[in-house]
Amino acid sequence: MAIRVGIIGATGYTALETLLLLLRHPEAEVTVATSRGEAGQPIAAVHPILAGRMSLTVDEYDPAKVAAACDVVMCCLPHGASAETVRQLIEAGVRVIDFSADFRLSSVAEYSRHYGIDHPWPERVGKTVYGLPEWYADQIAAADLVANPGCYPTSAILPLGPLLADGLIRPDDIIIDAKSGVSGAGRTPKLNTLYCEAAESIAAYAVGNHRHQPEIVDLLRRFSGATTDVVFTPHLVPMDRGILSTIYVKPTDPARIDELESVFHVWQQHYGNGHFVRAVQHLPATKHVAHTNHVQMTVRRSGDRWVLIVAIDNLIKGASGAAVQNMNVMFGRDPRLGLS
Amino acid sequence: MAIRVGIIGATGYTALETLLLLLRHPEAEVTVATSRGEAGQPIAAVHPILAGRMSLTVDEYDPAKVAAACDVVMCCLPHGASAETVRQLIEAGVRVIDFSADFRLSSVAEYSRHYGIDHPWPERVGKTVYGLPEWYADQIAAADLVANPGCYPTSAILPLGPLLADGLIRPDDIIIDAKSGVSGAGRTPKLNTLYCEAAESIAAYAVGNHRHQPEIVDLLRRFSGATTDVVFTPHLVPMDRGILSTIYVKPTDPARIDELESVFHVWQQHYGNGHFVRAVQHLPATKHVAHTNHVQMTVRRSGDRWVLIVAIDNLIKGASGAAVQNMNVMFGRDPRLGLS
Amino acid sequence: MAIRVGIIGATGYTALETLLLLLRHPEAEVTVATSRGEAGQPIAAVHPILAGRMSLTVDEYDPAKVAAACDVVMCCLPHGASAETVRQLIEAGVRVIDFSADFRLSSVAEYSRHYGIDHPWPERVGKTVYGLPEWYADQIAAADLVANPGCYPTSAILPLGPLLADGLIRPDDIIIDAKSGVSGAGRTPKLNTLYCEAAESIAAYAVGNHRHQPEIVDLLRRFSGATTDVVFTPHLVPMDRGILSTIYVKPTDPARIDELESVFHVWQQHYGNGHFVRAVQHLPATKHVAHTNHVQMTVRRSGDRWVLIVAIDNLIKGASGAAVQNMNVMFGRDPRLGLS
Amino acid sequence: MAIRVGIIGATGYTALETLLLLLRHPEAEVTVATSRGEAGQPIAAVHPILAGRMSLTVDEYDPAKVAAACDVVMCCLPHGASAETVRQLIEAGVRVIDFSADFRLSSVAEYSRHYGIDHPWPERVGKTVYGLPEWYADQIAAADLVANPGCYPTSAILPLGPLLADGLIRPDDIIIDAKSGVSGAGRTPKLNTLYCEAAESIAAYAVGNHRHQPEIVDLLRRFSGATTDVVFTPHLVPMDRGILSTIYVKPTDPARIDELESVFHVWQQHYGNGHFVRAVQHLPATKHVAHTNHVQMTVRRSGDRWVLIVAIDNLIKGASGAAVQNMNVMFGRDPRLGLS
Lengths: 340, 340, 340, 340
Fold this sequence. Notes:
Order of helices and strands of chain A: EHEHHEHEHEHEHEHEHEEHEEEH
Radius of gyration of chain A: 20 Å
Structural class of chain A: alpha/beta
CATH superfamily of the largest domain in chain A: Dihydrodipicolinate Reductase, domain 2
Oligomer: homotetramer
């Protein structure tokens, strides 16, 4: 029987991408889509790419009705708003995959410090699985609530995690220079994401204070078991989708600087049997993973550094594809279903 | 009297940009443009944007004729080919601004190592002024030959130079993550610069072995007086023009990590009376300098690093604008002429 | 059992798109991919997006070996070259879907006139089904050879065909102003498809003499049964994929100019039960059909004209998706398999 | 003495483009820039590209103060709002170039019908010169108020005007298929001009009811002296700037369909001594006129039609460049000043 899926906050780009992935999923069916602003409209009026392909009408959000109609809910709301909705849905008895950052961090204090608000459901902070099936599949399979990872963190944790876990690189000197397509900034009209502002231009933003920095640090500490810090600089690139992270690290043993194969070896050990993460010899471009759930990563030497280069599609492996992958794991399906 | 300018290798993007700048220059006139492949054609057949605006016919290259018709020649040939042509022109008695890398490095050995060829005119290597008027205006004014700087080096040397000269940052831990528009790769058709390959994608290239890395190191050593190394990673960004360099440095005195104003102070001291280099408070985007000869740069703190962020137009301040600025200096004009 | 598919000419964009579609197809398997220039390489070396997803090695073309390994061959060669290869494959006993224009026209004379060469296999011209399953499904199902439609013709014939067949519009005053993404120009490096030439620019090309014009006319005559002519102007638009055709027609009965519902009615009659062609009320953008096999079309009145506006993805419904749809029909599968 | 220029509504794209052009103008100086929302800020805070290049502070609008500080005012407000402001400025004794549509049409009734409001200053409608210096230079030179032309109308009137005036083409069968960059839609954040909506997509909009249609018709009637109608379809193209209009016309005498030189001849007669309008043999791309005040246009035959193809930069010749050109004419300067 098909997994019945609900989408809360159906108007944004990650919601749309999830809907498109689920259209192709052979064992899932979207039964509910809600949005405050668009209730009553056909989903194709909100997303014209769905014209003739999905006949759903957008609903008002009602936790009891959503829970009754769904086996799992994808909650695509912004942080803060999401936690409260997630709590209602969990209490109504439905499993939830939360796209927001509300349940990703280990500590309520860190959350409040970086998000500037009291957490609406502090009891679940630090007790919710981080939805990275490459590492936490067992917990995800059993979870009622999964914190779907951030897009930048996905691009950083996947390559760095195993290298830290195996002690191959130093945890105290990591620089992540990340470049994202504009869809990461969402679908709400703002000056800096207008075509005429974003096209033909690249800029850094939130230097030294982006909210994904503590998320990356939190996760990397789980791998390294040590105090880890990262310098993280996000950039806005004139493209719709994709993240390329260029990560500068140092081998724990400087004498091994030329042993790039040791990096490949660790990656192979951890991801070799996985479905979506690939160490490659070529320099990956975001185009090489666009519209897929795949990750391509490689390593080069430059001076006394290893340069890790990682490409993902921010909307898919960085959001909606990860959610579908998590859903597949939660419901005992092949993780690849619906994800080519 | 107008400065009579010749353009050698008139078909590429930097040649075109130079022609466009000179069209607006009130005291310069293009008298000759040569190109092997296009000789005999009107310049507007090569560059349709010049239709009705410039009536020049493209010529075969003949050093004597060029020298007779010009006060200065912009040589827009690739490295190797350029040095030999430059020698002929200098020997024919005309001043030259060389767009290639042939006379930028201090050492013939370094040149051969990185460019893989014997230098055609080794006598002038190390004895040619590096065309950065913000630092070497006096030598440029007197020069018969100016080595026009590379685009990436310009974006790195301008912010780093004074900080190294004043000892504010460490010379041994500099990471330059640079992002360039596609025009930097030239106008010769190649797979990776096709629209369908470059658009909607970002990738690193030449990681650890780009030829601008030794050029940057060579120049930075002149400022620091110390053994300096840099990690340099160039990226191809889906935009026509622009370079954004994100540069990770460490203050010499870690206790000063929060004194960002010391960086601004040094920049102000060195560039305060200049024409094109600006320290700004906002995070510069390449769009903020596109189609201009201006440089915008700023600094932020992230962890134990200062992050310098610098934007230039690779075709203008990174090539043709710098050449026109050099020409103005060589001929005693206001450096801003023709450059808005 | 899976349909075994071969790809001849595997390096181009339509070949890649076909490979990507077949990766998702539940009942097809790519068994052979050939390319003269790339034989011996893994397919992922030619198309890095396939890294870890397809393990095929590119082969030299050998008709007997291809025929033995395949149930159907997608021939992605240019016109002229294709016809000869198609003949060999058909004679070797395998069914073929030809992406070139070689078997699309009704007349050898027309072919020679527009393509400037003698047809390599004239016997099959006029005797090969035009691969538009919306109209010719029965013939396609039985065919050994299918002429896969051109991208521009698809965007013109689908909306115009039924209106001409029903006599709703005049066949003698049709203007097609078509706009295509750059991928339509292929993957061979050329000046005009470089990023820096194509980006941030739009231009018309081949005005009055594009080879798709006779193809459109040929097909429209089959629908109208009358002498039909069209004015056809293709444009190159700075986007990877997509065609938008804006088509200016006149109602046969000028008094019906405001009866736009009659157009929708005819479309509904012909495509109402189909899978991919949709009349929509909104103004379709190419983004609304990008990465899908769908067609969106609508009509507006302007002055004494009906303006038909049609959007397709040139690489999918305009090429590879149509081919997969044809394959599904040829092998008795649901036409939607592998096409979301 | 420099012309003192004021800019009303300084935050939009046409205002910025005007500021950039005036920066290069040797005989003009911006003395005032006003904006309701941004008063008190340095102009570079609104437009970071002006950092270090223009030290103006944005003011509140005060007609008396503006009039005292300026010889001419560029009014960059939206229609409706503009007319009232223009009236105040004219009454305060300063000359005005109005970027809005408020004074372009000949008739108040037409204005009300298309703009849906009562005209705030009906006395000047039909009595204000249309700011096309190629045709109305004498009136512009003497005018206190100039109605700066719309961008689409400029691209249509310049090629069509002389052909209609000379009776070479029929006035009753003109189809204008126009394609514009996104900057034409302004700088106010809206969903359809977000990067992720506009990039990699093309769509028609306002089919059959765009407000530039009556403006085009109004002007063309002045040239043809006959009842003229046009079918006009604007499209949004994924580029920052540029308009390409593809115009389908019929020769008055069908027998002359192959006499393309007659079109060139008429254009040459009317524009031959002009500064910015060029008939060219190549197919113009918007890139060929981007960042310039130039117009490139050509003609081809297709079937029984002449296809006119015209490229302008919508922000320059379609707005700010035309305004500067008008200003030059109003103040007796060379029309080319500041416009390369």
